[in-house]
Write a structure and sequence with these properties.
- The longest helix has 18 residues.
- The chain has 6 helices and no strands.
- By secondary structure, the chain is mainly α.
């Protein structure tokens, strides 16, 4: 009986201590995702840019899963903002895979299409 009363007193004391604490604030919510990149969002896109949007932007565009992983390794995580990607590097990285990015087989993106995508991404790259 004494043990039960002691346990009840401990629980009552714990409950009283919590009552004096300030209520927990609502958890912070993440900011809304940016609008996805689509062909209709870039009506003046050239051939390589159109292929990039169709084949790559779902991961490498704003809010894509490649953006978060790449952001840890680069000051400019979005591929289209990079200025240090020679076309040959883009082709090699796409065909072999790099980091968490899987290899992109020719059945998904032809050599000709990948070359256009690579040229689009390398437009600002230094030779």
């Amino acid at each position: 009986m004494i043990a039960l009363m002691g346990g009840a007193l401990i629980l009552a004391g714990a409950a009283c201590g919590r009552a004096s604490e300030t209520p927990a604030q609502a958890p912070k919510r993440p900011p809304p995702l940016p609008a996805p990149e689509t062909l209709s969002s870039r009506p003046a896109a050239g051939p390589g840019e159109k292929l990039y949007i169709e084949k790559c932007a779902m991961c490498h565009g704003p809010g894509g899963m490649g953006t978060g992983l790449l952001a840890r390794r680069s000051d400019q995580p979005l591929l289209e903002k990079r200025t240090d990607l020679p076309a040959d590097y883009v082709v090699q990285a796409a065909r072999m895979g790099i980091g968490n990015m899987p290899a992109i087989p020719r059945g998904e993106v032809s050599d000709a299409d990948l070359k256009l995508i690579a040229q689009h991404l390398a437009k600002g790259a230094k030779p």
